Each structure stands twice: as structure tokens, then as C-alpha cells.
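Regression test case RT-17, inverse folding.

Input:
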């Protein structure tokens, strides 16, 4: 199991990102990003782009530079299918919440054309999530998607058999601020009547997911479905004053996540029996 370290507490609630953690919507996502990037000037966003010198990593600087020069993503980024649209917009606009709100809204309008392109990211996710729920753990979805799109995708993926898997779903248009703000995680916990703590695990594939989890005060688990190397994970989570957030653990698959959760739950139950 690919774990940086064990989470500090066994899970009493598990919240999971949607795109690139549970489902594959890469084709739809990149088509929509391709549609929206040439419109940056029209959207009054061109002057709000960061400069390459403001980037966290050399790779981020290259992404910004290419978008500035070509008004689109480099074909290599699209081919690799490893970076989320949220992370792309974070790289391009940094802390400018207004610019990110505008670009997300424009993306949503473009995404509507491609919303039917959704598939399970791993073949056994349905089975694995049912194993997790059988352990008595509430499971929820947190997604920057608009609710109408996520609900549509939920009805399509695996022929709609995932509908009963989730105890709560919070989407980007349910709150004022999308990830990396913690608002969606906190809204989900409010709906579940669960306090934010280490006993809440939030699992996602992007740096923005980890930031959102840490800002919410919960355990942040990085889903490494893109199979980044440990050196790359250290690079994108540098633990500096400007970028302090690091995941509490890393898993390579939903099966690894569920196995880790079930083992920690079982060990916790044994400890409680020993104390009784």
C-alpha cells in the first residue's frame, strides 16, 4: 500500500472527490477546457493570468507560459490526462477568487456539451464503496461540478447503480466558494451532523483537494490514480510557508483506500474491546 503515513484517526465519515477519483470524465473535461481557454480575453480574464514567475513549480510556469502564448493547453498535458481543471485554473489564476469564479462558470457552460462522457475510473469502485458502507461509515461526494451535471453523470455511470452509495452530495454551485476553499466539505459535514475532525477522511486526486481537506480541519488523503512518483508528490506538496499543505496519506486506488479504512476500523474496535 502506497502510504506516506497512516492517518491520525480511523474514519467515521469518508468524503470523496468525483472526477478523476471515482469517475473518468477526462475527455469531457479537457474538451470544455479547450473551449474556454481561447475566450480569456472575451471573459476579461487575460490580464488576471499569473505570470510564470509567480508559479509554484517549473511545470506550472511552463503551463502558464504556453497558455499565454497559444490560448490553449499544451497537447502533452491533454494526452497525459493527469491534471484536473480545478488545478489548471489554480495554476492560471492563483488566489484571485473572482477570476476563478468566472472561469468555472464559463467552463460549466462549455461542459454541458460533453456531459454524457462519464465512466467508472476503476472497474470495482461500486464493490469497494459497498464494502466501505458495510463497515458502517457514511460516504459522501464532494465535487466542483454543477449539481445538474453530477446528478446526470450519476444516472449514467454504471447504469445508475451508484445512486444509493452516497449519504451526502455537495457540488460547486451549492456553496459560495469552490475548492480549494473548505466550504463544500464543511457543508457536507453540516448535512451529516458530523463535526470536522481527523475522523473525517476527505479523498481527492488534486492539490486543491488536499488544500480543501486541510483547511476544513479533516484528514486529507491524496488519491494517486495518476501514479505520480513519490518525488513528484513531494514537489507538488512542498511544505513551504507559501504552500504548507501536505496529504496525511496517499493511496493508489479505491481498493487501497477501503482496505486501509477497514483495517483501521477493525483495529479500533479491538482496542475498544480490550479497554472494556
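Golden output:
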Amino acid at each position: 500500500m502506497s502510504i506516506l503515513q497512516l492517518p491520525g484517526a480511523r474514519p467515521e465519515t469518508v468524503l470523496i472527490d468525483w472526477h478523476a477519483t471515482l469517475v473518468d470524465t477526462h475527455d469531457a473535461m479537457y474538451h470544455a477546457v479547450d473551449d474556454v481557454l481561447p475566450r480569456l480575453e472575451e471573459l476579461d480574464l487575460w490580464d488576471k493570468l499569473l505570470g510564470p514567475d509567480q508559479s509554484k513549480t517549473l511545470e506550472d510556469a511552463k503551463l502558464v507560459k504556453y497558455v499565454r502564448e497559444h490560448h490553449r493547453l499544451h497537447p502533452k498535458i491533454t494526452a497525459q490526462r493527469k491534471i484536473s481543471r480545478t488545478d489548471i485554473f489554480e495554476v492560471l489564476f492563483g488566489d484571485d477568487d473572482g477570476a476563478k469564479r468566472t472561469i468555472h462558470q464559463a467552463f460549466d457552460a462549455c461542459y454541458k456539451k460533453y456531459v454524457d462522457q462519464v465512466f467508472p475510473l476503476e472497474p470495482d469502485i461500486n464493490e469497494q464503496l459497498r464494502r466501505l458502507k458495510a463497515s458502517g461509515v457514511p460516504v459522501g461526494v464532494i465535487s466542483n461540478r454543477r449539481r445538474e451535471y453530477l446528478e446526470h453523470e450519476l444516472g449514467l455511470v454504471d447504469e445508475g447503480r451508484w445512486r444509493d452509495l452516497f449519504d451526502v452530495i455537495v457540488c460547486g454551485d451549492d456553496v459560495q466558494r469552490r475548492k480549494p476553499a473548505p466550504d463544500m466539505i464543511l457543508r457536507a459535514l453540516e448535512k451529516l451532523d458530523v463535526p470536522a475532525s481527523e475522523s473525517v477522511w476527505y479523498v481527492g486526486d488534486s492539490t486543491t483537494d488536499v488544500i480543501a481537506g486541510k483547511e476544513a480541519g479533516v484528514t486529507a488523503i491524496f488519491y494517486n490514480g495518476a501514479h505520480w512518483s513519490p518525488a513528484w508528490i513531494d514537489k507538488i506538496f512542498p511544505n513551504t510557508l507559501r504552500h504548507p499543505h501536505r496529504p496525511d496519506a496517499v493511496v493508489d486506488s479505491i481498493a487501497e483506500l477501503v482496505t486501509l479504512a477497514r483495517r483501521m476500523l477493525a483495529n479500533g474496535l479491538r482496542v475498544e474491546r480490550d479497554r472494556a
